[in-house]
Amino acid sequence: MARQVAHEINNPLTPMKLTIQQLIRTKHLDHDSFDAYFEKSTQTLIEQIDNLSRIAGTFSQFARMPETKFTKVDVAAKLFSVVELFKNNHENIDISYSGVEKDVCVNGDAEQLLQVFNNILKNATQAIKDGTKGKISVELETINNEILIKFTDNGVGIPLPIQQDIFKPNFTTKSTGMGLGLSLSKSFIENMNGTISFSSKIKTGTTFAIRLPKEHESMLLHSEDI
């Protein structure tokens, strides 16, 4: 459990470090746009710090998982902000986003969604071999009453013998970049009445797909469970 706590605390630290590094570069290279980027970046840092504080608090008692706090969340805006962080700070990886950038809402937990997006994108960057031109595409689309989010990388892929284990608690493998956070990510998404799945091929890459009910549908499903 202690390893899992450390892993989840490290997840928000990655985009925080990337944001600060980009702030420094922007100040030195592009003074005209620094003020606008500073305001945007500080808001992102505040969100990640809040996320980190919550993780530390909820895991202070190892016996219980973080509680899901349901609110109206603009999942598109959250996703886009995380993608931009990784995009601006991984020069060797082509990270693209397709889909609307805001006003696609779910009834879920904003901080848990940030953890999920951070974890999957971090895993995707780690799955790309050094010296190769990495590509990561993030797509968001709405299908009827459902939101579909896909993360696709051209990394090393997940070996078939361990694919059945990657969502298990405390499972990890450095060779594919998969971390302990996938177990929690699955729990978080399922608590929001969603699903998370993946497909992978060695030396080709991996796609993670998250499906979440749109706000009104999610609220209906959650109320029926009470």
UniProtKB/TrEMBL annotation:
Broadest EC class assigned to this enzyme: transferase
Q: Which organism is it from?
A: bioreactor metagenome
**Record-level Gene Ontology MF annotations:** ATP binding; phosphorelay sensor kinase activity
What's the Enzyme Commission number for this chain? 2.7.13.3
Database matches in SUPFAM superfamilies: ATPase domain of HSP90 chaperone/DNA topoisomerase II/histidine kinase, Homodimeric domain of signal transducing histidine kinase
Q: Per the UniProt record, which residue ranges are transmembrane?
A: none
State what protein this is by name: Signal transduction histidine-protein kinase AtoS
Q: InterPro entries recorded for this chain?
A: HATPase_C_sf, HATPase_dom, His_kinase_dom, HisK_dim/P_dom, HisK_dim/P_sf, Sig_transdc_His_kin-like_C
Q: Which UniProt keywords apply?
A: ATP-binding, Kinase, Nucleotide-binding, Phosphoprotein, Transferase, Two-component regulatory system
Q: Where is the Histidine kinase domain?
A: 4-216
* Gene3D superfamilies in UniProt: 1.10.287.130, Histidine kinase-like ATPase, C-terminal domain
